[in-house]
């Protein structure tokens, strides 16, 4: 029996790829340093998920707490940004070592900053790196690069970082483990009668009002940041679950597809959210012109744009930019994220995908715009006149 059996079980959403965020309060020992006490069950969940053919990316706090513990007996450490950056640099190694000691697979450290996620090229590189690590059966452990971030460019907390990473890797689910069993109608530390909320359909002001401040002396977040993260993930079509990472039975139940905690629903599917964004986000100012056959294929909504159907490229755009795709009659057919810059697309006009590396000397993939990065704006055009 677990400590959270008073919270009714509910089915965990189906998933094949997830982000698991683990807070400092689950890793920091009472006397300082890091402890595997709660991390062991979480690591076992990750291993069992991998054995079932699922992929998990960890977003782990704990570096600052680990660094502070290493210096506890030798120095008084301030709380300004420079001191925190020093502690993060010192504590990264033991934090990664903890996860490696609990994993039979290799563990890779991935440090991200705000700049990595707002710069489109670096964003794509970060995504490619994480996808590459998953393809190699490596466990990525992500953290904010506190050692170089400055206040105005900090992501702020690892709850929100986890939501951003979930969208970055096209995750199906965001799991947030903390020392709180669920979202409660009121702060359970002040109101023992507060009832847990099993399901949240949407993040509203009333839901936000249920959240208190941080309950930890080592973490930077609280229930409010977890709800903010759930809102970000929901906007990308990704549901979020909040659960007690201290309770081994609760963690084990997750592996059986059962949640004792709070499920924050996403308003739509991940693909619906992505397609909506592709249709409505401002484009980079470039266009790719395609022939009638390619327009028909894209209009069906299930095809990627290949070089052979391209007639030309106009304007200016870089790899990863959102571009308009028009047919030979100048009608908008679709919008999508180009895998290649405008100069590269012009060199690939009419070519077969297998020629990309020969023409450019490298390849970002066989598709100029992949179908997952493309949203149609018109149905398929009528057949060409004989």
Automatic annotation (TrEMBL):
Give me the residues that bind ATP, please: 21, 178-179, 220-226
Coiled-coil spans in chain: none
Where it sits in the cell: the answer is: Cytoplasm
Class in the EC hierarchy, top level: transferase
Under Gene Ontology molecular function, one entry of this record is: glutamate 5-kinase activity
Please state the pathway this protein functions in, per its UniProt record.
Answer: Amino-acid biosynthesis; L-proline biosynthesis; L-glutamate 5-semialdehyde from L-glutamate: step 1/2
- Supply the PANTHER family for this chain: GLUTAMATE 5-KINASE, ISOPENTENYL PHOSPHATE KINASE
| Main function | Catalyzes the transfer of a phosphate group to glutamate to form L-glutamate 5-phosphate.
Recorded family membership:
Belongs to the glutamate 5-kinase family.
| Name recorded for this polypeptide | Glutamate 5-kinase
Source species of the chain: Rhodanobacter ginsengisoli
Upper taxonomic lineage? Bacteria, Pseudomonadati, Pseudomonadota, Gammaproteobacteria, Lysobacterales
Encoding gene per record = proB
């Amino acid at each position: 029996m677990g400590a959270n059996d008073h919270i009714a079980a509910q089915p965990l959403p189906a998933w094949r790829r997830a982000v698991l965020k683990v807070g400092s309060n689950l890793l920091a020992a009472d006397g300082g340093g890091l402890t595997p006490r709660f991390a062991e069950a979480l690591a076992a969940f990750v291993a069992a998920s991998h054995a079932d053919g699922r992929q998990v990316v960890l977003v782990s706090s704990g570096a600052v707490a680990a660094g502070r513990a290493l210096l506890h007996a030798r120095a008084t450490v301030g709380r300004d940004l420079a001191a925190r950056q020093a502690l993060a640099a010192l504590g990264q190694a033991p934090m990664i070592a903890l996860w490696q000691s609990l994993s039979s697979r290799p563990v890779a450290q991935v440090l991200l900053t705000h700049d990595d996620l707002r710069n489109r090229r670096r964003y794509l590189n970060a995504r490619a790196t994480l996808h590459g690590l998953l393809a190699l059966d490596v466990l990525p452990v992500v953290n904010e690069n506190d050692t170089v971030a400055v206040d105005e460019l900090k992501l702020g907390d690892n709850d929100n970082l986890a939501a951003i990473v979930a969208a970055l890797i096209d995750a199906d689910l965001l799991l947030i483990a903390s020392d709180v069993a669920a979202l409660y109608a009121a702060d359970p530390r002040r109101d023992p009668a507060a009832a847990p909320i099993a399901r949240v359909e949407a993040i509203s002001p009333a839901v936000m009002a249920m959240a208190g401040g941080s309950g930890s002396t080592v973490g930077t977040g609280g229930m409010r940041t977890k709800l903010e993260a759930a809102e970000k993930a929901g906007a990308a079509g990704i549901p979020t679950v909040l659960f007690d990472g201290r309770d081994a039975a609760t963690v084990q139940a997750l592996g059986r597809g059962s949640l004792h905690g709070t499920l924050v629903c996403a308003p739509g599917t991940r693909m619906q959210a992505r397609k909506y964004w592709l249709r409505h986000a401002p484009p980079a100012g470039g266009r790719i012109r395609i022939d009638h056959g390619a327009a028909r294929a894209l209009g069906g909504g299930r095809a990627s744009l290949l070089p052979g159907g391209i007639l030309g490229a106009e304007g200016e755009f870089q790899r990863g930019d959102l571009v308009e795709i028009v047919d030979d009659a100048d009608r908008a057919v679709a919008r999508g994220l180009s895998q290649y810059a405008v100069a590269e697309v012009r060199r690939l006009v009419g070519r077969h995908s297998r020629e990309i590396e020969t023409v450019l000397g490298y390849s970002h993939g066989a598709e100029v715009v992949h179908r997952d990065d493309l949203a149609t704006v018109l149905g398929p055009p009528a057949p060409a006149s004989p």
